[in-house]
Amino acid sequence: MKAVSFALAGLAAAGVALAAHQSTAAPRRAHVVASSSCAAGEKTIGSVKVVGFPKLWLNGKQRKSKKSFSLHAKDRLRMANRGEVDFCLKEGGTFCRAFPGAKLRVVPNDQLLLNVRAGAAQCSTSEGYTKNIAAGHARLRVGDPVFGVSVTKNRTAVKVFLGAVEVRGNDGQASPVVVSAGTQTLARPGAAAVHPVALRLLPARKANFQKLAVQLPKPGLTKPVADASDALTAIFARDTLVVDLDKDAVADSRTQRFTESLLGKLAKTWGVALKTRFASSAEAAAELAKGSADLFVTAHPEEVTAAGVRLRLGDAAGVAAVPFMVSDKALVQLATRSDAGLATALRRYLAAAVLQSGVYATSYVGVFRTKPLYGRLGDLAFPTAAHATGVSTVVHQGFKAVVKGRLGPGLTVSSTVKGTCTTPSSATSRSDAWSCTDTTQRTWDPCFSGIQDVVVCPSDPPATEHPVDVVKLLLTKPLQSIPRVRPDPTAGPARRILATDRTICEPTTGTKPSFGSRSINDVCRKADGTKVAFLAGQPYAAGAPWAILSLPPDWQKNATAADTVGIAAIWFW
């Protein structure tokens, strides 16, 4: 049987839908709203463009035309021994060239994006988070590396140029082997993949890898936009990134040297200087809270939150954390003040450094004289759906309560009450929105003006995707003219958030607690109603996707560090 060879390059620039991180059986892929430049019809998953004039079979039927055609899930492509085709998949922003002899199936099931069985192909993907691919008797779990696979009846070889690939032999049943940049492995039927060895490439294959790597967009390796991030604004204002080092975490001097090397490159990219110093968890908690330090390099970021509580920092206690490196079997993280902008910018830079370039590996090898331990970097090397990159956030706004002096189309008046409106809405910054009270002292917020002596108040829960029921509130006093300081509708709080991990988040009710000086505004639930997270502060809207701080449900009982989660869609009034 001819060898199957293909190179996959993660571009992390368009969005994706793919399999989430699992150590055993692959789960259903998490579908997110994503951008893709793959030209395909609405009811198709991709398209094929004939490059040469090959003998080409689609689902067992030979095609003799050079015209492009659409692809659907489970379609099978087989090439004869001449000619080439290009194909793309909207899912994953996947682009491939299939060479003579290739046999493959696109999106064969809910677990796999691609199944390559024979022939040769080269592909680029822009998944942004972990996906599963079948290649011969091996199963691959990839974030966004550049890698190649060669499959025959007797073996599957995996070669990694950038990033890392987890390989499970024996049809996915064997123990995983993580293959890092510059190495390769081999998996035979019924056996686990062997220990990786140094990468060996023919000149033509090396040139192709280099071409794929050069064309990768590296959005994380640029200076971030401060947007509404207090932390990024402070860093750029002082022209210095101030980093505290935990003495325990950097007991190995090499950890300190690696930190200064990689964060030095980050600082240079951001156009600022780097300043490092040693501190305890308590000292770091106080300095992060008051903004005199930006990062704390530690293996225990939750201890910084605990120290802040002990120091009675109140609402200022609490940090966010981003995976950074592995030192002495411990995962070292970057603790920051609770700021979605800084945490997101750090994660994007590190993900690009690990998956889309050799920046991370160069610093690591230069200090430790060995390959990075990608397999223990968690979701930095194998991103979860919560940390998808390149996913376009869809913004919904402009609820039409009143149109030309009449009730908005599709709305139904469920009841009529009387009352007054004396203050602007706290649910939106729209100039026509009010907070109102009826004669039973019930508060309605928001209510929308536009009809004489009447305001229209949605009565469906705020997180309802398409509100229909409204209350007509008859004004007992005229509306007053009140200056509005935030005319941008997206400057106000969201009424509904769809995270990239598919959870739905809605505004919390009652008194809002704070974490790291960020108000807890939303609670996220699974489809069955189980609480899975709380959201703190406002979204960081620079880059794709938007991101926001996320906390586990037990954050008030146990000291924790916040994470970030991507926003696939967000609704404002």
Outline:
The chain has 7 helices and 39 strands. With 573 residues, the chain is an alpha+beta fold.
Describe this structure in words.
The chain is an alpha+beta fold. The chain folds into four domains: 211 residues, Jelly Rolls; 172 residues, D-Maltodextrin-Binding Protein, domain 2, CATH 3.40.190.10; 93 residues, no CATH class; 80 residues, no CATH class. It has seven helices and 39 strands. The protein has a 17-stranded mixed beta sheet that branches. A six-stranded antiparallel barrel has the order 33-34-36-37-38-39. Strands 28-29-30-31-32 form a five-stranded mixed barrel. It starts with a strand and ends with a strand. The N terminus is likely disordered.
| Rg over alpha carbons | 26 Å
The total strand number stands at 39
Mean pLDDT metric: 87
By CATH reckoning, the class of the largest domain would read: Mainly Beta
Structure classification: alpha+beta
The biggest beta sheet is recorded as: 17 strands, mixed
**In percent terms, what proportion of residues is strand?**
35-45%
| CATH structural fold name of the largest domain | Jelly Rolls
Tell the overall outline.
globular
